[in-house]
Amino acid sequence: MSTGSLVYNPYTGVAVLLVVVLLYKVPALVRAWRNPLVRQVGGLLTVACCVFIFVVPSTIKKVNDVTGVTNFSAPWVYSLLTGFCASCLLLIIKWRGGLEVKVRRATFWVYGSYGAVVTALWVLFALGDHHVERVKDLDTFYATTPYMREMIVLYLLAHTVAVLITSALLWSWESRVRGTGWLHVGVVVLGVGYALNLAYDVAKVIPVVARWTGRTGLDWMSTDLAPLIASLGGLLIGIGFVLPHAAERFSHRWSARRLYWALRPLGRVLQMVPAASAPVALGRFESLDLRLTHRQTFIRDALRQVGPFMDADLREATRERHLAAGDDHAVAEAAADAAVILDAVPRLHVSSKPQHPVPRPAESMRDLAAISRAIRRSPRVRSTHRAVPNQEESVNS
Q1: Is the keyword Transmembrane assigned to this protein (predicted)?
Q2: What mean pLDDT is reported for the chain?
Q3: Residue 4 falls within a domain, yes or no?
Q4: Are residues 198 and 59 both part of a single domain?
Q5: Looking at the structure, do residues 222 and 280 belong to the same domain, yes or no?
């Protein structure tokens, strides 16, 4: 296929995904732009987006038409792909770190070698005969054309070397980040993505070499198979870069949301406690973290207010009863704390002095979420708390 079938190409979906990933990373890039590692990630994602945008057949056709140079997209796409290879190497070099002198030397080597490759690509293109436009099968069509042949081999060689080095560094780093959760998953996904890039190079090189021997039956590997492999590899690379940050952020928000709602029953019970200071009014659209902090602070302050009215004997009796019923230690502790809170809150309203010689210290109540769940779920908590007359209904509400 030469210029037909420009509507569908597997590169299109990956281009859209990478643009979404880049937009997702923009706020982090702006906040931490002075960090060289962050800038390198931003540069790599930008070049990757450009690669998958300009390699789409319809875009290739458009660039050729706009520039007026037949097959101008070939060295342009190859240059972007070479820049992507260099960005990958630079990112891995900065990730691994090490002595500043070695990092600087490796960075200089990457810039110098891949800059020379890009220059050579354009020189070879200018020297070659490329008057027949090929939108999809340029690699195989010009595989035997002087200078164009060398240009194709050069970009494939540069890509293969970069992918080999990047894959080796990633898989050597994988053992060092085991046990780090989503970071390890991201490194593994990146490793698989770059391994697929090696398969892409194989799918490109084999039909080109076959053309040198006069065989055309393997062209489908370059025109049909290689785009699918490259698209899957690009998809995994994009996911690998965004997954650790996105998953950690989602996990944090999910945990914060669960804790916020878990503390709601305890917060409702303690709303009856007179506030030690003026309440803080939160806006309707305040962040979840701020709302959670506010709820935790309110509960801690209220527990300090009601702490002197907590009955240590009641707590011990409740704890023993739960243990005897077969509950584990943590459940029994939470149920006992819930019982003394439910007992102490109404007493705070009818007495200005503690009635228990050994009150329960509020500071010892550490697992507030477990206590709140005990208030909401455990029927034994309500059966063991000794409510003051005329206050039980308001407390239970």
Answers
A1: yes
A2: 81
A3: no
A4: yes
A5: no
pLDDT given for residue 123 in this prediction: 96
Residue-range definition of the domain harbouring residue 310: 267-396
SS3 for 195?
helix
- 8 A C-beta contact, residue 261 and residue 235: no
pTM for the model stands at 0.68
Q: Tens digits of per-residue pLDDT, 178-220?
A: 777 788 888 889 889 888 989 999 999 999 999 999 888 899 9
Q: Is 366 exposed, middle or buried (0-12, 13-18, 19+ CB in 10 A)?
A: exposed
Q: How many CB atoms are closer than 10 A to CB 250?
A: 11
Residue 196 falls inside a structural domain: yes
Q: If DSSP codes are grouped into helix, strand and coil, which group holds residue 222?
A: helix
Classify 120 as helix, strand or coil. Answer: helix
Domain match, 83 and 123 both = yes
Question: Which one-letter amino acid corresponds to residue 24?
Answer: Y
What residues are paired with 359 via a beta bridge?
311
Query: 226 and 87, same structural domain?
Result: yes
Residue type, 194: Y
Residue 44: name the closest of 12, 91, 82 by CA. Answer: 91
Q: At 24, which CATH number?
A: 1.20.1070
Cα separation, 256 vs 108, in Å, equals: 45
Residue with tokens 């300090």: 304
What is the per-residue pLDDT across 367-377, written as a single tens digit (0 to 9) for each?
888 888 888 87
Asked if residue 14 belongs to a domain, the reply is yes
Q: What dihedral angle (degrees, nearest 10) is formed by the CA atoms of 7, 8, 11, 13?
A: 100
CA distance 314 to 269: 18
